[in-house]
Amino acid sequence: xxxxxxxxxxxxxxxxxxxxxxxxxxxxxxxxxxxxxxxxxxxxxxxxxxxxxxxxxxxxxxxxxxxxxxxxxxxxxxxxxxxxxxxxxxxxxxxxxxxxxxxxxxxxxxxxxxxxxxxx
Length: 120
Known about the structure:
single chain; alpha+beta; eight-stranded antiparallel β-barrel; 8 strands; 50% strand; globular
């Protein structure tokens, strides 16, 4: 009985130590979405978005409004394509990045609209 209890305890400890968190599983070494993207946004504000997805899944780029104000935008895309990007001034885009055309909704405080990107 003591041996089977010891084996059970050992198995439990081993299984707990081999688990990875969801956050760790989302880390990427070679993102399937890496490359350059360009798009537009419209609604309460209008303009263009350009960004690059790195091999690690980080997203870095620039958002330019119709009034020619430019903001740096950054974020992260998971292995399944889910992404979140934002600027320091609270412009937020979220959705699923696709290998060709991506569309979704953006928001900034009480403003909102839609966006589309194409991979170059």
